[in-house]
Specification:
This protein has helices at 9-18, 86-94, 97-106, 329-346, and strands at 21-23, 63-66, 83-84, 141-142, 145-147, 151-153, 208-213, 217-222, 228-232, 251-257, 260-266, 281-290, 293-301, 310-318, 361-363. The chain is an alpha+beta fold. The protein has one domain (9-23, 53-110, 124-363). The strands form 3 sheets. Strands 2, 6, 7, 8, 9, 10, 11, 12, 13 and 14 form a 10-stranded antiparallel β-sheet that branches. A hairpin with a 2-residue loop joins β10 and β11. The chain is globular and about 65 Å long.
Length: 374
């Protein structure tokens, strides 16, 4: 958990994705055979594990869980398969841009405690350094195997967007006309990491969540901007009813199938950059893999955005309780963000983004000569 009085977490997320990184010239190497995977094999629990039950007989998913990991939704070009050996996972971790950033920051830790050289590189985005992030240090273990992506189908590990398809809720990150044009996360409306869903994703920090169950509802609170999903429970899928009102995070309804909580989500708010359109649906399944892990799987079905249905599996690991995330960025920094833009305009300049926290970082060359980062 990190609570900060810094401007624009969403600006930073975009800066990270848009930041440049330099790599040494790669040397061609023969491709290794892909490791076999147990993804989508239907197994929901570790062999021999008995799922604990609530007082009313539902599978007990309650507690604090965390999906902090260097594994992301999509597979990077540097990974050749879904399942990884320990050596492959270590190589990808060492080349992850957030790990490189952390090592770079730690290499000078303590040499300049007053940060007198902080702005010498003219990159004010680096003020948002490794102190503020918590991306993890390893790739995720899902169903006992190391994974390079949450997506399991298609086999590429990439979202199968249709050509020209566009998710709703778009905004121009460089539009500083007013608060309404700024990203939702910057305004503390909804988090930028995607942890709220749909699909529930992980980010570069604040990846803890809490599950609370009653006979009639399931509540999932995510750490980022303390977003909360309140999911009504029905007797079965045939009994489910959805609202016609769009909601942040979508309109979710759940039911139990044996030891698995099944949740179907539709109709996300049009201002949210959700992974489904108003005509799409997300089906999620939550099962206790063992006492220390929930297996979270998902299926995205939306013919308006994607060329095929795509699926994924994620590990939610037992965690310590989370602290409140008090979102001040948009509430207190918005006058500074817009005031700074007006000042630049008065000087004849165009407000814009910085180079990103990854600018200038060098991705290490490894034995495969690979270029890029996971």
């Amino acid at each position: 958990m990190k609570t900060k009085l810094l401007a624009a977490t969403a600006l930073l997320s975009a800066a990270l994705l848009g930041g440049t990184a330099m790599a040494q010239t790669p040397t061609a190497q023969p491709a290794a055979a892909a490791a076999p995977s147990n993804a989508n094999d239907g197994q929901r629990h570790e062999a021999g594990y008995a799922t604990p039950k609530t007082a009313w007989g539902a599978p007990d998913l309650q507690g604090f869980w965390n999906n902090t990991s260097l594994t992301g939704l999509q597979r990077g070009a540097d990974a050749k398969s879904l399942a990884l050996t320990e050596k492959e996972a270590e190589r990808l971790a060492n080349r992850n841009i957030l790990v490189v950033l952390t090592k770079d920051d730690n290499s000078t830790n303590g040499e300049d405690p007053n940060n007198t050289k902080l702005l010498e590189d003219k990159n004010n985005d680096r003020g948002y350094n490794a102190f503020w992030i918590d991306p993890g240090t390893k790739l995720a273990t899902v169903k006992g195997e190391l994974r390079s992506s949450w997506i399991t189908e298609p086999a590429t590990g990439r979202i199968p967007y249709k050509p020209g398809a566009a998710r709703s809720g778009g905004y121009a990150i460089t539009n500083f006309d007013g608060p309404e044009t700024r990203p939702q996360a910057e305004r503390c409306v909804i988090g930028f990491s995607g942890s709220y869903g749909p699909v529930m994703n992980n980010g570069m920090y604040n990846s803890t969540m809490q599950f609370v169950q009653t006979p009639s509802h399931v509540m999932i609170q995510v750490e980022m901007i303390h977003d909360v999903r309140v999911i009504p429970i029905f007797a079965d899928k045939a009994s489910v009813k959805f609202s016609n009102i769009p909601k942040w995070g979508g309109d979710s309804a759940g039911w139990y199938e044996g030891d698995t909580l099944v949740v179907e989500t539709r109709n996300p708010h049009p201002s949210q950059r959700a992974m489904i359109s108003p005509t799409g649906k997300l089906t999620e399944r939550f099962s206790r893999w063992n006492d220390k892990q929930i297996l979270y799987s998902f299926e995205v079905d939306d013919t308006s955005l994607y060329s095929q249905t795509w699926t994924g599996e994620m590990a939610l690991n037992a965690s310590k309780p989370m602290y409140e995330y008090a979102c001040h960025e948009g509430n207190h920094a918005m006058p500074g963000i817009l005031g700074g833009a007006r000042q630049l305009e008065s000087e004849g300049k165009v407000p814009g983004m910085g180079p990103g926290i990854a600018a200038g970082l060098v991705i290490p060359l490894d034995e495969t000569g690979g270029e890029g980062f996971n």
